[in-house]
Structure to design on (348 residues):
């Protein structure tokens, strides 16, 4: 698998790259957005990701808002008005990048139009994120690939053929640092439709780091993905799930996000290696956890060893249970006190 770095973080290594998906949960309030940066860092996220777009580049003004646009929106206004209300200014981007740098968390943003790519590159982002909705947007993907920055590409709503095309467009324009995110672009998806096992297929087929862009409202799905080898977890993040806005209800709040990060790190440690290797503690446990042959009663010199005068009990001292058949064919060299471990040197 082609490992690479985003900032100082290894993508495709032993630890999952965890992205707090701030998205539009700032509600176009720069103070909320800045607080999200600080809080995401405290929660243990490696990166925080916003969205960079202009409403006029997103949709026609007459498009009606639906739940499938971006989260549970309620359908109270047009999609154009929703996007317009959630835009971040170019100056907002600068403030957020500066805050992220100061906090020691990576600043990322999903890019939705070509001019925004230029702005983000100038800003110094360490990678470009392409959302699921733009996996067929060849001009945007090729423009992103030409930056030579790492690309994280979400695959929601895409057929396998469409994923293959998008990967080709990336690589054909010189992108050598590519990661894919398995995604079900429903807000939130039904658990039976998550198909997290698909992560393993994507990794094997494309030989690139693969993660999960998770729109479910719980952390369990992210943990399952990590257990199946996910290299990236992108999870919706909010300061307060009760705030007005399209994605707050399906996002994790700071307490939930912190707990998810802790559990992901536990899962990673628990995965270990593909081959079992006995640790020092487990080797020590063998001393008291296994059985050995002991004298059930006093065994006299010259007496035959048998099931009647021996017992297999803990600790491990004494002849191993797997060798008792051989021991039962021998006699004692000397008197063996009751309860003593029977060793080969005691027999002939």
């Amino acid at each position: 698998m082609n490992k690479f770095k985003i900032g100082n973080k290894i993508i495709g290594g032993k630890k999952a790259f965890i992205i707090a998906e701030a998205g539009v949960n700032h509600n176009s309030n720069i103070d909320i957005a800045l607080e999200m940066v600080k809080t995401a860092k405290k929660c243990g996220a490696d990166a925080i990701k916003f969205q960079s777009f202009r409403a006029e580049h997103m949709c026609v003004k007459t498009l009606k808002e639906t739940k499938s646009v971006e989260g549970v929106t309620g359908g109270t206004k047009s999609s154009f008005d929703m996007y317009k209300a959630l835009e971040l200014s170019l100056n907002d981007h600068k403030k957020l990048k500066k805050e992220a740098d100061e906090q020691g968390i990576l600043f990322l943003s999903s890019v939705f139009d070509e001019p925004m790519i230029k702005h983000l590159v100038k800003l110094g982002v360490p990678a470009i994120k392409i959302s699921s909705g733009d996996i067929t947007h060849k001009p945007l993907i090729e423009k992103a690939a030409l930056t030579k920055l790492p690309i994280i590409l979400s695959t929601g709503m895409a057929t396998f053929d469409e994923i293959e095309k998008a990967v080709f467009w990336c690589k054909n324009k010189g992108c050598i640092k590519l990661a894919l995110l398995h995604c079900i672009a429903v807000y939130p998806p039904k658990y039976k439709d998550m198909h997290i096992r698909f992560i393993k297929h994507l990794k094997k087929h494309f030989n690139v780091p693969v993660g999960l862009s998770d729109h479910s409202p719980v952390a369990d799905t992210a943990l399952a993905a990590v257990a199946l080898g996910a290299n990236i977890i992108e999870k919706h993040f909010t300061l307060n799930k009760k705030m007005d806005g399209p994605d707050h209800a399906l996002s994790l709040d700071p307490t939930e996000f912190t707990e998810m990060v802790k559990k992901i790190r536990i899962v990673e440690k628990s995965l270990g290696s593909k081959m079992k290797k006995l640790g020092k503690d487990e080797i020590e446990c063998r001393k008291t956890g296994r059985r050995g042959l002991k004298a059930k009663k006093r065994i006299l010199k010259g007496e035959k060893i048998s099931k009647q005068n021996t017992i297999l009990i803990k600790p491990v001292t004494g002849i191993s249970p797997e060798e008792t058949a051989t021991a039962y064919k021998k006699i004692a060299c000397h008197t063996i006190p009751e309860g003593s471990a029977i060793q080969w040197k005691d027999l002939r």
Observations:
- The chain has eleven helices and twelve strands.
- The CA atoms of residues 28 and 88 lie 6 Å apart.
